[in-house]
């Protein structure tokens, strides 16, 4: 008995107990009140007299129903059939109209059976239990009505209607709640999965961007080191014959070394992870934006290029910053083709300000909203922002008032002018 009590106690929580207690209080109060109404109005009858044997049987059956409901979460289908059978027991015991009081417990049992049953795995078992419970309630109602003198045909119709109503109404409501609860849980699981996938994709995007930057490191370092080697060779020849020229060469070596160390320090900080060494690749520059736009046009994108100021001014920007601007424009055009197909795009290269070069990529809203394209945080912005930070540039990206998207990269010429030398 002790082990059985220990197994039962964890299940008797407040949510489990409240329902049966409320049902028992309501049905017991009704059982007490109905005989009084019968005695006050001669036209109302058919209920057991208060304190009679039938009345005590009805009270015992209703109490048993409430006790059985305590197990509705562990054995919902069995509990449903048992509490529905109480209608037949009350009708046979002569409860008369009081038989309908058993329906209160049936309502609770139906709700628990539908919300606790795993669908569609046990759909057939649930359907069988609901049908059986409905027939039991209908039978109990039919027997109680014939016992008080109602014609058999009318009693059968009343029983079927009562049984269908007691079962169908709470079952439909519970099924709706159950479906919404499952849908909410599915959405939560999906959101968690998408978040995990997004985190993994961001990590992969950052790793890929670091790998690309590591490949570009070779070109940057090789450019400066080659110039330094040439100038130090000139110093060796000029030091005796042309001291002034030798001093100028040393100053150029220092300028090149300082610029290279600054950019290398930034790259090393960004790429502080092992296994990033790969073969070098070519570097794109701002002067190649026209080729990028032509390539986008060949891919079907409606895009135009506007150049403000002299393109040669962009050479005041170092190679890493130029590559950053080129890749930013490239990513923006790819995003426009992916998220705003058919929208008109515009690339603007503004070199009028000698202190900075500004690259702006703007696309309008798509003529037709893309179908099945989830709204997700852009992975390309991660790489763009890292490149902008590396070159002391300012990146601004966001929607336009017309419903399109604009990305603006401002590259200070003073911060990287030495690299271009």
UniProtKB/TrEMBL annotation:
| Residue ranges annotated for the Signal transduction histidine kinase subgroup 3 dimerisation and phosphoacceptor domain, each copy included | 209-275
Q: Which keywords belong to this entry?
A: ATP-binding, Kinase, Membrane, Nucleotide-binding, Phosphoprotein, Transferase, Transmembrane, Transmembrane helix, Two-component regulatory system
Segments spanning the bilayer are: 12-33, 53-70, 77-95, 101-119, 126-148, 154-177
Q: What class of enzyme is it?
A: transferase
| Identification of the protein by name | histidine kinase
What this protein catalyses is:
ATP + protein L-histidine = ADP + protein N-phospho-L-histidine
Which GO molecular function annotations are given, in alphabetical order? Answer: ATP binding; phosphorelay sensor kinase activity; protein dimerization activity
PANTHER family on file: NITRATE/NITRITE SENSOR PROTEIN NARX-RELATED (PTHR24421), NITRATE_NITRITE SENSOR PROTEIN NARQ (PTHR24421:SF10)
What organism, scientifically named, is this protein from? Nocardioides panzhihuensis
Q: Which Pfam families match?
A: HisKA_3
Gene3D superfamilies registered for this protein in UniProt = 1.20.5.1930, Histidine kinase-like ATPase, C-terminal domain
EC number(s) on record? 2.7.13.3
Give the range the annotation lists for the signal sequence. none
Supply the CDD domains for this chain.
HATPase_UhpB-NarQ-NarX-like
Q: What cellular-component terms does GO give this entry?
A: membrane
């Amino acid at each position: 008995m002790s082990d059985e009590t220990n197994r039962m106690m964890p299940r008797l929580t407040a949510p489990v107990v409240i329902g049966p207690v409320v049902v028992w209080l309501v049905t017991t109060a009704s059982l007490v009140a109905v005989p009084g109404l019968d005695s006050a109005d001669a036209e109302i009858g058919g209920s057991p007299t208060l304190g009679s044997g039938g009345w005590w049987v009805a009270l015992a059956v209703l109490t048993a129903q409430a006790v059985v409901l305590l197990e509705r979460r562990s054995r919902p289908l069995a509990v449903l059939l048992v509490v529905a059978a109480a209608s037949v027991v009350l009708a046979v015991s002569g409860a008369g109209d009081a038989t309908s009081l058993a329906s209160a417990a049936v309502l609770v049992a139906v709700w628990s059976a539908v919300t606790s049953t795993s669908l569609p795995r046990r759909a057939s078992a649930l359907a069988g239990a609901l049908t059986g419970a409905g027939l039991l309630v209908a039978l109990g109602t039919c027997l109680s009505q014939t016992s008080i003198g109602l014609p058999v045909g009318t009693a059968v119709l009343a029983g079927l209607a009562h049984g269908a109503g007691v079962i169908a109404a709470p079952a439909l409501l519970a099924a709706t709640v159950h479906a919404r609860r499952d849908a909410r849980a599915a959405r939560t699981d999906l959101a968690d999965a998408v978040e995990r996938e997004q985190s993994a994709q961001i990590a992969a995007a950052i790793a890929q961007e670091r790998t690309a930057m590591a490949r570009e490191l070779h070109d940057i370092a090789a450019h400066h080191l080659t110039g330094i080697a040439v100038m130090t060779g000139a110093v060796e020849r000029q030091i005796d014959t042309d001291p002034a020229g030798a001093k100028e060469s040393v100053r150029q070596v220092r300028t090149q070394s300082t610029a290279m160390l600054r950019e290398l320090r930034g790259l090393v900080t960004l790429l502080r992870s092992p296994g990033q060494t790969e073969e070098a690749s070519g570097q794109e520059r701002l002067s190649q934006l026209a080729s990028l736009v032509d390539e986008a046009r060949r891919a079907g994108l409606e895009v135009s290029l506007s150049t403000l100021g002299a393109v040669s001014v962009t050479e005041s920007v170092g190679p890493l910053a130029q590559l950053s601007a080129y890749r930013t424009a490239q990513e923006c055009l790819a995003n426009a083709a992916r998220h705003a197909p058919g929208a008109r795009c515009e690339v603007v290269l503004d070199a009028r300000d000698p202190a900075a070069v500004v690259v702006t990529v703007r696309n309008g809203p798509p003529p037709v909203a893309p179908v099945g394209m989830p709204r997700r945080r852009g992975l390309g912005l991660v790489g763009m922002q890292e490149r902008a930070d590396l070159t002391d540039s300012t990146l601004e990206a966001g929607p336009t008032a017309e419903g399109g998207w604009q990305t603006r990269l401002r590259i200070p010429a003073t911060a990287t002018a030495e690299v271009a030398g």
